[in-house]
Amino acid sequence: MNVLIVTESCFGNTSRVADAVAAGLRSTGAEVIVAEAASAPTLDGVDLLLVGAPTHNMGLPGPASRRQAATRGGNPAATGVAEWLDRLPTGFSGRAATFDTVTGTGFFAGSAAKGIQKRLRRHRVDVVARESFVVTATEGPLADGELDRAELWGAALA
Rounded CA gap, 151 and 146, in Å? Predict the structure, then answer.
């Protein structure tokens, strides 16, 4: 199985989750590429697409929230998952899953993964799973056990 994981990360937490998910997928024999949204390859030959981003202002990061992250010591790219999804061609026939990092859980926490899922479905992509991983603060670190949980989730997706 060929897997592409497209990410956006401002403080490195979402990237760490993507790497753990990739390790879980690789443990099942999957071929995995992890790429930042700004430089993600085409979807040619991809069987499973994973897209992940940090949750900013209850949804996907945008230019304003990226600037804010930069003022807090983050290192966001100029463009991210939202812009990548805007350029996504209709007709991807593989499965997809979404994930995010969040500082809290519940209705008022918001979810970048949910926003990613909605955008993928607009492109008629079959989204089979969605998961959130908790960070202890905006800058992180990830909560205890989240990387292990991400690896298990990746293995289960295969």
Answer: 9
Nearest C-alpha neighbor of 47 from the set 69, 70, 29: 29
pTM for this one?
0.94
CB half-sphere exposure, 91, CA atoms < 13 A: 4
User: How many domains would you assign to the chain?
Assistant: 1
3-state secondary structure 106-157: CHHHCCHHHHHHHHHHHCCCEEEEEEEEEECCCCCCECCCHHHHHHHHHHHH
Tokens at 43, concatenated: 């979807």
Coil, helix or strand at residue 26:
helix
CATH number, residue 84 = 3.40.50.360
pLDDT per residue as tens digits for the range 53-84: 999 988 898 888 888 998 988 888 888 999 99
Domain that holds residue 152: 2-157
